[in-house]
């Protein structure tokens, strides 16, 4: 094997060393790997090339490498040595004629014609560095190699701390495979990327630790002395870089309307808590880490909206005891268990704790978004029921905690339906068919369950009713089940008022669009759009007016921007949009036109006409950050600091 650290040295080895396959790194001290390949292809060299890098992950670069520069393989760090060896071995299996042709192409190379390889600073690099997502990886395609190194160095201390903690945990609990694999993931990332940024000692040590951990994972005997020696290098690296400024996920104050419920994360392994809360950050949740029972005693459980409890926690029965403590204070609190491994025995143990949901490592932010959606649907909400001509049942439901509105006729129900937005309409009396048709014709009627009391007949079912309520004490439970189902449906999918994606689907769409623009090294702008005075309007004129306002603004938002842009309803009077391949300054004129059109809207309130104004905050990637949480919270913070204007505030950097 021939090895060269610089592009110029590699040219001389190419001309004199008779290689069969070339393995080229994306960044070299004196040039980029892409430019080096371009130069030798211009000279007619036909040798197979494996391109390996932590950068160039966008589609344009991939096509250039594969189609224009004829790279046989494009691999991204971190990758296993076995994978690289297999790819290289496969490329050596060529016919003698092809081998002779490749050798001749190298013999004809003229080094004198390759006068300038350039430097990494000369070329725009579209990078997507595989590092932990908890520090600022703000990326700009024109940054120099030195700037990339500085960014990596900034986040390295935290990455080292996580890796060391995970490795120590794996050493202490060698029987837990999920913990071992979590440690492998951390050191594998370090081994793949650290050397590319000049941290060779750390990369070598991480690779040595990974080797021993993989032996442990395969139930072989690791060399613990070699493990500890290499791990000590990582410890010293973390201590030596401890004074480096770290830019972590910053939490705004609790007044942020973008953050979801406060989520309690309970695990006695600090490394796993750190990893889990880092992933949870991208779900826009506000999280509260807890690593011991003592810490749990000091937490205000009244402010917690959901909890994740690890199995095991402080011993075999710790998770069950912890969940029991949570339920003593908050009987309706949604709880998920998080296990290091998945098996029917562990799922059985999780079920016995009384938890609502089960997750097993590894989990990513998409898994957590789905879990948060399910937990959010389990949170207690006030269930609204509209009752027609059934006063006795209305009293019973009020006694069970329902928000009940009674109506003497279908006309009365239609007049107040949009304002009340019931989850269930309970139909009784002499006109069940008229009531069913009224609900189905009403705005939002598809998001409401229609139940008919016994005796309502099959005609009501054929007209669109969902079920017949049985007689007896179970009927309140049936009504509650349908109401909860409707409440959960409104959390998911399309928001019925605006016709736009709701928060959960919107998060997925925004993450996907931001990832796409990052891979293409393009700008992305997030917009936080708030209806000024929305809560006051709802309090004065009712929920129906608020929903009509959101619907009208949502329709304008859907039609006044490009089809490929993302938009949706976040919560109440807050909408969010994402504009791909544009910065805040570019999109600002279109936003001002949108605000102007909103000012022309007018709505009939209880006793007056109501006009609305929307305020908009903008934040752009890469200037303001490159993860969705940072962009949205930055846009919201800018809007909060801005001075309100009569026509609608527009705040951007």
CATH topology of the largest domain: Alpha-Beta Plaits
SS field, number of helical segments = 24
Mean pLDDT: 78
Helix fraction by DSSP (H/I, runs of at least 4): 40-55%
Task: Look at the helices and sheets and give the structural class.
Answer: alpha/beta
Number of domains: 5
The largest beta-sheet arranges its strands as: 7-6-8-9-10
- The radius of gyration is 30 Å
Low-confidence segments, given as residue ranges, are 119-145, 241-254
**Which overall shape is indicated by the principal axes computed on the Cα atoms?**
globular
CATH class of the largest domain: Alpha Beta
CATH homologous superfamily assignment of the largest domain: Reverse transcriptase/Diguanylate cyclase domain
The total count of strands amounts to: 22
CATH architecture identity of the largest domain: 2-Layer Sandwich
Distance between the termini: 52 Å
């Amino acid at each position: 094997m021939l090895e060269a650290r610089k592009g110029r040295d590699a040219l001389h080895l190419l001309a004199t060393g008779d290689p069969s396959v070339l393995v080229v790194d994306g960044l070299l001290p004196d040039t980029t790997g892409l430019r080096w390949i371009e130069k030798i292809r211009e000279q007619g060299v036909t040798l197979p090339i494996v391109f390996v890098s932590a950068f160039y992950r966008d589609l344009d670069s991939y096509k250039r490498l594969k189609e224009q520069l004829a790279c046989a393989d494009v691999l991204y760090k971190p990758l296993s040595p076995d994978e690289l060896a297999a790819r290289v071995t496969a490329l050596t299996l060529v016919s003698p004629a092809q081998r002779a042709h490749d050798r001749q192409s190298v013999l004809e190379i003229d080094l004198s014609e390759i006068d300038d390889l350039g430097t990494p600073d000369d070329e725009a690099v579209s990078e997507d560095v595989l590092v932990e997502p908890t520090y600022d990886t703000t990326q700009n395609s024109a940054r120099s190699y030195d700037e990339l190194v500085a960014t990596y160095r900034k986040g390295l201390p935290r990455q080292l701390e996580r890796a060391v903690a995970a490795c120590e945990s794996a050493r202490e609990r060698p029987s837990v495979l999920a913990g071992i694999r979590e440690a492998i993931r951390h050191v594998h990332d370090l081994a793949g990327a650290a050397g590319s940024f000049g941290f060779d000692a750390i990369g070598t040590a991480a690779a040595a630790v990974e080797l021993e951990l993989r032996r442990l994972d395969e139930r072989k005997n690791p060399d613990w002395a070699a493990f500890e020696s290499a791990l000590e290098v990582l410890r010293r690296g973390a201590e030596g870089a401890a004074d480096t400024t770290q830019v972590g996920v910053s939490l705004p104050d609790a007044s942020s309307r973008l953050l979801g419920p406060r989520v309690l994360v309970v695990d006695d392994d600090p490394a796993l808590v750190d990893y889990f809360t880092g992933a949870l950050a991208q779900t826009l949740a506000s999280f509260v880490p807890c690593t011991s029972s003592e810490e749990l005693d000091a937490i205000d459980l009244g402010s917690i909206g959901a909890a994740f409890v690890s199995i095991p926690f402080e011993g075999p029965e710790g998770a069950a005891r912890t969940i029991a403590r949570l339920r003593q204070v908050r009987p309706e609190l949604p709880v998920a268990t998080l296990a290091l491994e998945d098996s029917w025995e562990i799922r059985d143990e999780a079920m016995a704790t009384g938890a609502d949901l089960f997750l097993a490592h590894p989990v990513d932010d998409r898994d957590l978004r789905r879990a948060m959606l399910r937990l959010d649907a389990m949170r207690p909400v006030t269930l609204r029921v509209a009752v027609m001509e059934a006063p006795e049942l209305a009293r019973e439901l009020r006694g069970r905690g329902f928000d009940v509105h009674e109506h003497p006729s279908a006309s009365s129900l239609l007049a107040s339906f949009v304002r009340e937005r019931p989850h269930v309409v309970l139909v009784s009396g002499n006109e069940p068919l008229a009531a069913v048709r009224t609900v189905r014709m009403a705005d939002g009627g598809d998001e409401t369950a229609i139940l008919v009391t016994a005796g309502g007949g099959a005609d009501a079912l054929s007209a669109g009713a969902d079920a017949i309520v049985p007689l007896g004490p179970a009927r309140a439970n049936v009504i509650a089940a349908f109401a909860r189902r409707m409440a959960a449906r409104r959390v998911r999918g399309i928001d019925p008022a605006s016709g736009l994606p709701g928060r959960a689907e919107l998060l997925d769409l925004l993450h996907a669009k931001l990832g796409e623009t990052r891979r293409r090294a393009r700008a992305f702008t997030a917009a936080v759009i708030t209806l000024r005075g929305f809560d006051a309007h709802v309090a004065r004129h009712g929920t129906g007016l608020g929903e009509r306002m959101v619907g009208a603004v949502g329709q304008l938002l859907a039609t006044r921007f490009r089809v490929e842009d993302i938009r949706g309803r976040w919560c109440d009077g807050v909408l969010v949009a994402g504009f791909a391949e544009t910065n805040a300054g570019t999109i600002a004129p279109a936003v001002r036109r949108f605000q102007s059109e909103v000012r022309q809207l007018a709505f009939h309130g209880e006793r007056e006409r109501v006009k609305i104004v929307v305020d908009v905050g903008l934040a752009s990637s890469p200037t303001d950050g490159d993860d969705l949480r940072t962009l949205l919270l930055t846009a919201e913070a800018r809007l909060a600091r801005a001075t309100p204007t009569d026509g609608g505030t527009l705040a951007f950097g």
